[in-house]
Every structure is written in C-alpha cells, then in structure tokens.
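Hi everyone, sorry if this is the wrong subforum. Our group has a chain we'd like a structural model of before ordering constructs, and none of us has done structure prediction before. Sequence below.
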Amino acid sequence: MPQREYEVGLALYKLDASTSGKVAHSTQSLSRAAWSHWALIFSRKGRSIRVELSPQLFSAPGMFVVKTPGPEKQQITYTISEHNYIDAYYFGTYFGDEYDLRRVARDHSMNGQVYSKTSNNCQHWAARYLDSLLEAEMVDLYEDEDADEVVDKIYDVVKEGSTSLKNKANKVITGTKILTGALLLAAIL
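Answer:
Right subforum, don't worry. Here is the predicted structure as tokens:
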C-alpha cells in the first residue's frame, strides 16, 4: 500500500447515557480535554479514520463509568473506524498508510491491561499511540502556536513534566478524588 499524507488531530468527545455509553458527540473544547474521551483523527480527502481506546468499555450514565461484568475488570482494547471528515484539533501530518495505523493500534503497549479511569485510560492510550508514531518519525508536527497547544495538552494531562511518557494518574481526576475524600471526611466528623 502506498504511503499517503494524512492530517492528524485530536478529537474530544462526551460519552452520553442516551447512547449506552458510546461516544456521542464532540465537545470541541480544549479546556475540557481532561474530562473528555479522546480519539486521534487521521483525515485525508474528506475522509477520516478515528483511532481510540474502545468506547465499548464505558457504560451509561457517565463518561468515567466502566462496565465491569461481575468481579472481572475491563481489559483495554481499541477501535478503528472510518467516517466522513471529522472536525478536530489538527496538529500535524502523518506519513504512512492505514495498515501502519492499524499495526500501531494492535501493538499498543496498553492493550490487554486493566482499564482505570485515572491512570490507564483513553487519554493515556491516545498519548502513547501518538508517541509511537513520533518515535517512528511517521508524524511531523505543525510549527505554530495552535498545534503546540494541542500537543502540550495531550502530554500535560498524562504526565507531570517528565521527558518521557509515563502512565501517570490524570491530575484533574486525582485532585477531584482527593477533594471528594476530604469533603466526605469533613461531613463524617
């Protein structure tokens, strides 16, 4: 298959109870990135490929609720789907073919691990996927402030200033859990 150029971007989605927890619609608010479901978008000639941690892991009524049948925990898997053009925060160009997009998703280091809403989630999956493409020199990042902001947001949410991507807890969710715990403790006392 010949190498092609695709625009690569980040799409942010809200999971909606009315769709049984599947990705419902785009939130398109970069400031809400930490609270959104993430998908990487590869677009070319009016067509988009959406690559993401599988939204079937989620269940209604919220975006951070995970289906857990019995005592089992959900293992991470991925979804690749084709669509008409998807509006996203585009930040670079991917050089390759669809086979490589599928191969990188199939070989993703998080696949098969247990999903965690705070430290092993769609944001981590998308950032590691992008990291794999960057390491293989398959993506050139745009050299402008908007692209820099998107890429910074991708890495800021999943790591805390380190130079290598680590699977750390999402700072916003962790902070919310600490605050909730403190409020519950204060209510009890």
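For your construct planning: The mean pLDDT is 74. Residues 171-188 form the longest helix (18 residues).
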